[in-house]
Amino acid sequence: MNPATAWAEREVAALREQDAAHVWHPLLNHRSLAKSPLSVMVQARGCTVTDAGGKSYIDAMAGLWCVNIGYGRKEVAEAAYRQLLELPYYPLTQINPPAARLAAKLAEILPKGVSRVWFVNSGSEAVDTALKIARAWGKLRGGRHKIIARYQGYHGATIGGASLTGQTHRRRQFEPLLPGIIHVQAPYFYRSGARTEEELAARCAEELDAVIRYQGPDTVAAFIAEPVIGGGGVIPPPADYLKRMREVCTRYGVLMICDEVITGFGRTGEMFASDLYGVRPDVMTLAKGLSSAYLPIGATAVTEEVFQALNAEGDPGFLQINTYGGHPASCAAALKNLEILAGEDLCANARKVGARLGAALARLRDIPSVGDVRGVGLIWGVELVEEDGAPLGNDAVGRILRYAREEGVILGKNAGIADGPSNTITISPPLVITGAEADRVVEVLGAALRRHMSERTGG
Ligand SMILES: Cc1ncc(COP(=O)(O)O)c(C=O)c1O
Asked: Is this model's pTM higher than 0.85 or not?
């Protein structure tokens, strides 16, 4: 607790009143707030956020998997400030300097050949744009329009994103969703029954092949996948899974869309997970770490082939426009963010601290409620189970997260199976996290899990 940063109680009470009366918060029933009030977060530096009472927490989720360079970077704020003074806004119907520079920078660091960038404001919008690009591309190929996605995948909040998402609880409230979207299994080894990861990868590739043939290859426009599933319980794929899925897509002339909204910009220890797993997607969706969330920005990047297909002689081009796409201040912040990511070699830190974090998390496997530990780089999941292996319920997981928070560590939770409770604890810290901070995260999680175990056994 740091009283120097504590806000006056009266001020906090007034904020709480305004919030309670007018802000609609995500993913909760507001009636629950009487029992579990939200924190008022007022400041953040590095990996640490501080609430209005002056209590500090290690933010082991980097906000929502996004503050890759850590909090409190003055250079990013200054880059945005300078740009706001110079040219606060102009639509991308014309050229603006930060957007041109950022697109060129992205073309330099994206997988070879992915070189054309459409700017948006969020991951969801990047995904919807990818979907529309796939459909527009498919129209030129005899009406291919279906998109294949995966159970457990998460692709965003818009109707397009929700339709591609493969989790029951994120879809059901909004049905009927978009037609023409088909889901296949995710490479979820833990409950797959496969003996080896290679077997699972082969099984997934065979299923994709069979589904495309069954639907009719001439009707399928694209296959979309997060290289590492994030919001579906952190599911890293078998080493050759993406290559095998790429082969199937190529065989049938289907576009491969890699949704790198979480995995992009160093999260897995490489700049992009497509690099880590050795594939070149046709389309990529980006957001979060693109600006480390200092300002909202996303992008849909495509290969020159896809771009050229939509810009053939006599074609109208891609008929979509958004007011804030390529916003100069967001692009300036993103450019500075990319400079920091490269300058401080945060991919290397993600690999180094990620290995230490993974090894420490693996040692929690001796706690009976830990069913699985999985991850890569700085994205990890700890799937929690009941004694019989069934997913641990939401209430118990909520308590474990509260215990960790009391000890100053913010963790996340997501569903482990497509129609199950949020029984996977997620860890996705800023890429600047130190070894000592990572150790503390695991120490607190271990203590919270042991407390849960002792309460369960009445000990
Ligand atoms: C893989 C993936 N795609 C898309 C999105 C949607 O991004 P946003 O919340 O910025 O709209 C998310 C958000 O978590 C995501 O994880």
From this structure: yes
Structure tokens at 145: 């329009």
Q: Could you tell me if 179 and 323 lie in one domain?
A: yes
For residue 307, give the amino acid letter.
F
**How many other C-beta atoms are found inside a 10 Å radius of the C-beta of residue 359?**
12
HSE at residue 207, side-chain half, CA atoms within 13 A, is 18
Ligand 1 contacts CB of residue 261 (under 6 A): yes
Radius of gyration of the chain (CA): 22
Rounded-to-integer distance, Cα 347 and Cα 379, Å: 12
**Number of domains into which the chain is organized:** 2
Q: Are residues 254 and 396 in the same domain?
A: no
Q: What's the rounded Cα separation, in Å, for the pair 435 and 242?
A: 30
Q: Which amino acid is at 63?
A: G
Segment 100-151, tens digit of pLDDT:
999 999 999 999 999 999 999 999 999 999 999 999 999 999 999 999 999 9
Closest CA to 155 of 296, 326, 298, 1: 298
Considering the domain architecture, whether residues 27 and 102 belong to the same structural domain is answered as: no
Please, which residues bridge with residue 303 across strands?
114
Pocket test for ligand 1, best of 127, 170, 284, 379 (most atoms within 8 A of CB): 127
Domain residues for 286? 74-343
Contact status, residue 298 vs residue 261, Cβ threshold 8 Å: yes
